[in-house]
Amino acid sequence: MVRNTSTSVVTIERFIIEQERRHAGASGTLSGVLSDIALAAKMIANKVRSAGLADVLGSADQENVQGETQQKLDIIANDTIVKAMDHGGRLCAMASEEVEELIPIPDKFRTGPYVLLFDPLDGSSNIDVNVPVGTIFSLVTKTSAGQRGQVSDALQPGTAQVAAGYVIYGSSTMLVYTTGHGVHGFTLDPLLGEFLLSHPDIKIPEHGRYLSVNESYEQHWTPQVRSLIQRYRGLDGKRAAMNVRYVGSMVADFHRNLLGGGVFAYPANAKSPQGKLRLLYECNPLAFVCEQAGGAAIDGRGRILEIQPTALHQRTPIYIGSRADVEIARELLTNG
Ligand code: P6P
Fold this sequence. Notes:
By secondary structure, the chain is α+β, with helices and mostly antiparallel strands. The protein has helices at residues 12-21, 29-49, 72-85, 151-154, 223-232, 250-260, 279-292, 323-335; strands at residues 59-63, 69-71, 91-96, 103-104, 114-122, 133-141, 163-169, 173-178, 183-189, 194-199, 210-212, 243-244, 262-266, 296-298, 318-321. The chain has 2 domains: 12-199, Fructose-1,6-Bisphosphatase, subunit A, domain 1 (Fructose-1,6-Bisphosphatase, Chain A, domain 1, 2-Layer Sandwich); 210-335, 3-Layer(aba) Sandwich (D-Maltodextrin-Binding Protein, domain 2).
């Protein structure tokens, strides 16, 4: 018997509108932002897909606020998002990993109620070797008075997010997002130029198969972190060994663990006492997606989403993925 595997063809725009209709008071502004993000993602996908041909590989010989050499595609992705988002009248400000200060909406454009925080091209050091990279985004609602966004509007805990997600430019281009009503994945059909619903209502397995951690930092970890990684690898005999998979591109590692189950860990270490990954536009959005998919995300003690930010580019340790595996981290890192 042939199993009916056909699914209706649902574009992301149609899905967003259908989700909006479920909320009587919805104005359509959030739907508009999400559709604009999907457009920016298609534009970036085009650039990433042809990177080797368009001579945009290699460094732009500039450094970003993180002190990291910016790749040309970093800059292109950043500018693509800003130009796609700044005139829709839905945002009051933006914050980007690639830009030190808050990005205002130009005076010539109307503003709106949302702040967009994003990492335009995460994992960009992998670009030249064709390893998957990604875009990560987070949306919060303006809290300050006046039309123009302030830094304080961006410095809200992850629990204040109204939407979050990521795009992974891998063997296919996928956009995965949540508005607090489950996690949904869309795959770009390059011939249609449309994101089509391919992964409705994603749930992360309770127990993970994969461990994603950069073990080259082992000598810089605390004894508690070393014990945790030993546990995950089955070396203390208390659980089966997890398969180590580490791409070095957070979106790629997170996405595999979201679908297959696993934990991504980037502990604080002697070299990076606050961890490496940024709270506002990497950890918060992925933590929102992960929790909505039934997983968990902590900084070693408490929920990532409950951290009160104090700076746009602040970093945090992170343990994110399957709930049972993250719970092991919480136990071992708080009880030592
Ligand atoms: P490391 C990429 O530069 C990134 O910000 C994340 O995408 C990735 O998970 C992490 O850094 C990799 O860092 O120190 O293991 O190379």
